[in-house]
Write a structure and sequence with these properties.
Blueprint (H helix, E strand, L loop, with lengths): L1 H17 L3 H28 L11 E2 L9 E2 L5 E5 L5 H11 L11 H6 L13 E9 L7 E9 L10 E8 L9 H15 L5 E7 L3 E9 L3 H9 L9 H14 L6 E8 L10 H4 L3 H6 L3 E6 L5 E2 H10 L4 E3 L3 H10 L1 H5 L1 E12 L4 E6 L20 E4 L3 E10 L7 E9 L5 E7 L9 H16 L10 H11 L3 H17 L1
Parallel strand pairs: 1-11, 6-7, 6-9, 9-10, 10-12
Antiparallel strand pairs: 2-14, 3-13, 4-5, 5-16, 7-8, 13-15, 13-17, 14-16, 17-18
Helix pairs in contact: 1-2, 5-6, 5-11, 13-14, 14-15
Length: about 500
């Protein structure tokens, strides 16, 4: 369409020149040709900058390439350190691509978010904030290697024991949200959330198009009908001033701040900003300050073609909240109904994981994913360095490929360090690394298939000899839940798309 516009512009300019008189025709024709050529050059540059991934029709999808972790020799470095992360947006983005008949671009795939999308069956701790579970076995995708799983499960909080929630919905109602009925899915999603809240909770609503405005001041769930009515009345309008919308949302959260409650801004958007400060570096400047004052930010992304994954993820990271991508009403139900307490109430802040391998027993290791959550080893106990946030009942899974020199007993240690949200004290706990037997547990076999699927999709060097056929075989052998069987269908679709 852009090229058609360029050609049409050139024709119109040439036509105007031809009709302008003999004495000026040559000059105007020359100017028109120069203008058309310049316009075409600009259009080609824009087209190159916004080239759709895989040559598909979904333009302006913004992702960032973080690279792929290498194997590390324990002779060079025995420590692996990263921030805990329970975001799942990358998996939902991939699913949306494949369901539309396209493979996702390499940079859209974050392997750890694929793995963490699937619930852990590790029991939650009863007395502690976290329970650490370690297991593993022979890797199904690397001969001579083992797969190590470190699963960290947070304590659960019953719905009736959850803190009061003061939520401010900041909703993107710009023109881009009219595409594919995005705003309608936002409205349905937020209504699910409202229906799950308790009478002591409050909801305020801010919207932004060309400008931001307050739609509803914080209102008790006792007046649920008023909140639902305000959500239902939303309609697309104007450009996208995300900066102004977030500013108003934070101002409202600050004005109605309640000590000891959940004070959270919830952004629902496609992440596109074209008015005001549009880059995440500018928008993020104030968000960290609010997070330090216990006003957190969670982001929920919507839309395909014109979607900014980078902005949405970085906003949530700096806002000490979580990021998810909602590609369907089912995903909204999963996040806002089945996992509501964990979505809202944080149990640990600035959480970091450090794994230390014994060089006498481990030859080399590779962390699968978490490239954008890397922390310097020396900053593990530097509590001014940002980590991740974990909600009630959430689990964090990290997978390592390791090459052992000896048996699989006592070959290292995992440590986690975090700020306990309840006591406001820094805590550090640890557990030794070992596992019994060579065969992977069935649920870990499935996660191995998920991780390999992510590695293949992002064209990782370490999966260059892998195949979707082997992924499918392993997934079919180990799948047990409805979500796991749905993954199998995605693998089959991906196989068909790669032919």
């Amino acid at each position: 369409m852009r090229m058609f516009g360029v050609v049409l512009l050139g024709i119109l300019l040439l036509f105007t020149a031809a009709c302008g008189g003999n004495d000026q025709a040559a000059s105007r024709t020359s100017e028109a040709n120069d203008s058309a050529a310049k316009t075409e050059e600009m259009a080609m540059e824009a087209k190159s900058d916004a080239a759709p991934p895989n040559g598909v029709a979904f333009d302006n999808m913004v992702f960032e390439e973080y690279g792929t972790n290498p194997f590390v020799s324990t002779e060079d470095d025995t420590l692996s350190t990263f921030a805990m992360d329970v975001d799942t947006g990358s998996y939902s983005v991939m699913r949306n691509y494949i369901k539309r008949g396209e493979l996702p671009p390499d940079e859209a795939v974050r392997a750890e978010e694929f793995v963490n999308y699937f619930k852990s069956n590790v029991p939650s701790p009863k007395d502690d904030t976290f329970a650490i579970h370690v297991d593993g076995g022979e890797s199904p995708f690397g001969e001579g290697y083992h797969l190590l799983r470190i699963n960290i499960k947070g304590k659960e909080i019953e719905a009736q024991d959850r803190k009061n929630a003061n939520l401010v919905f900041v909703i993107d109602v710009s023109g881009s949200m009219d595409r594919e009925n995005r705003l309608e899915l936002v409205k349905k999603s937020l209504k699910v959330l409202v229906e799950e809240l308790e009478p002591q909770d409050r909801v305020g609503i801010v919207v932004y198009g060309s400008t931001g405005r307050v739609v509803l001041k914080p209102t008790s769930i006792d007046e649920k009908d008023q909140i639902i009515e305000a959500i239902e009345a939303l309609h697309p309008e104007g450009s996208t001033n995300a900066e102004e919308g977030l500013t108003l949302g934070y101002e409202m959260a600050r004005e109605y701040f309640e000590e000891g409650a959940i004070n959270r801004v919830i952004l629902a958007s496609d992440g596109v900003a074209n008015v005001g400060k549009t880059g995440h570096e500018q928008i993020l400047k104030k968000i960290k300050d609010y997070a330090r004052k216990d006003i957190t930010l969670s982001t929920f992304g919507f839309g395909m073609g014109n979607y900014n994954d980078v902005l949405m993820e970085q906003l949530a990271n700096d806002g000490d909240g979580n990021y998810a991508y909602i590609d369907s009403f089912s995903e909204a139900r999963r996040i806002f109904m089945e996992e509501l307490t964990g979505t809202l109430q944080t149990i640990a802040k600035d959480a970091k994981i450090q794994v230390e391998f014994d060089p006498a027993k481990v030859d080399r290791y590779r962390l699968i994913g978490y490239e954008n959550r890397d922390v310097r080893d020396e900053d593990f106990r530097n509590d001014s360095v940002d980590g991740g946030e974990v909600g009630a009942g959430h689990s964090v899974t990290a997978l390592y490929e390791i090459k052992l020199k000896e048996d699989a007993n006592n070959f290292g240690e995992v440590r986690i360090r975090y700020l306990d949200e309840e006591t406001q004290e820094i805590e550090e706990v640890k557990k030794g690394l070992s596992f019994e037997g060579e065969r992977l547990p069935e649920d870990l076999m499935f996660l191995a298939a998920v991780a390999e699927f992510a590695e293949i999709l992002r064209e990782s060097y370490w999966a260059k000899e892998g195949s979707l056929e082997s992924v499918l075989e392993l997934a079919q052998e180990s799948a047990q839940t409805e979500e796991q069987y749905a993954f199998i269908e995605l693998v089959k679709d991906a196989m068909a798309l790669r032919k």
